[in-house]
Amino acid sequence: MSRPIDFVIAGLGNSGQEYATTRHNAGYIFIDYLANAMALTQGEGAQMPPVFHRRYDLSADVRDTIFTFTYANGSSTVTNSLRIILMKPLTAMNESGSSVQKVMQYYAVKDSKKLIVVADDLNTQPGILMVQGGGELAAMRGHKGLENIVSVIGTDFVRFRLGIGRPAANSTPISQWVLSPFTKENREMDLFGYLLQLTTQALKDYSMNQDLKLIKKKFARPRKIPNKLTEMNSLIFPVDVHEA
Predict the structure, then answer these.
(1) Annotated catalytic, 53?
(2) Which domains does the chain show, CATH number per domain?
(3) What pLDDT, in 10s, does the model give residues 94-121?
(4) Is the pLDDT reported for residue 137 higher than 90?
(5) SS3 annotation, the chain
(6) Reaction(s) catalyzed by this protein (predicted)?
């Protein structure tokens, strides 16, 4: 494609089937969910599941796609078209920065504000979205994937942080908690499913106005979670990975 990139959306996680539905893979899960949601919106049923290309040179699974959608603007309807790179780093979580940097360089994305990173957040309750942009390293300290990206490209990028909460006091070590799968207990999977939908809508709105303050106000905490949630029996959203 010749048109420039509008956004690079990177979901953080660990590659390998054993990590597929773990809390620390919230970013990976979201990217697969988003790829499916975008394809369905555009009526690409014949191309399902969405195709990613495994780019070993970029250390990432990558989907380069044009997303076209319409929205109401006052009394008129507006059609918008975006070229979006969806990516999942194939490095270890703690080395995500090198993959993100390679993808941005390959696609000639020089403005780090076009980078949106989606990751899990221990300090935010399940079902709650945190939205951040810029700021100091302290805003990302504790998440090794985000810290590594900062070490490579700085802090001037957008973060959508998906709440996974912390284990009950003294019940489970943090390292075990984040590498354990989401469960049905306490509606955890249902809350994460709700969060996938919420984050997708937040990203769509952000693509239209790029007003991070407005997105925080509309989608981030404090926010009341609906009493009725869609029941989630799986957090696997199929994608087709082609070796490049």
Answers:
(1) no
(2) 7-243 (3.40.50.1470)
(3) 999 999 999 999 999 999 999 999 999 9
(4) no
(5) CCCCCCEEEEECCCCCHHHCCEHHHHHHHHHHHHHHHHHHHCCCHHHCCCEEEEECCCCEEEEEEEEEEEEEECCEEEEEEEEEEEEEECCCHHHHHHHHHHHHHHCCCCCHHHEEEEEEECCCCCCCEEEEECCCHHHCCCCHHHHHHHHHHCCCCEEEEEECCCCCCCCCCHHHHHCCECCCHHHHHHHHHHHHHHHHHHHHHHHHHCCHHHHHHHHCCCCCCCCCCCCCCCCCCCCEEEEC
(6) an N-acyl-L-alpha-aminoacyl-tRNA + H2O = an N-acyl-L-amino acid + a tRNA + H(+)
